[in-house]
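hi! just following up on the protien thing from before. the input was this:
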Amino acid sequence: MRVNSEPLNWDHLPFANERELQRFIVKNAGTLLGLDVVSSTLPGGRPLHEVDILGIDEAGRLYIVECKHDAIDAGAIKQLLEYQDKLLTNWTSIEERVAEQRGRALRLTRAPPVLARCRWG
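and the predicted 3d structure came back as:
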């Protein structure tokens, strides 16, 4: 995956809560991470297994993005690993969702999703 590391012109990123951070990431996933958002826990985001944001890159690799306001601790890592387990256990639902998102049938390489955490504060 190639991520654009050019500075972005955002003077102020005010996130009052995790939901606002999540909205920002979903809106800018392509620019920030090179991802298409497959699902999110935002209203209308068609969530999968309580994952904050599920994205896919150009190569078809899945990304689980967890948004946190406070420190990323062992509990947050455990949560990411649990999400990863649920997704791998229910792989068919992921393939169906990605096919809907991409508008065509698609078989993903069954590999553990990349785990990402976004934190502010």
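The radius of gyration is 14 Å.
The longest strand covers residues 62-68.
cheers
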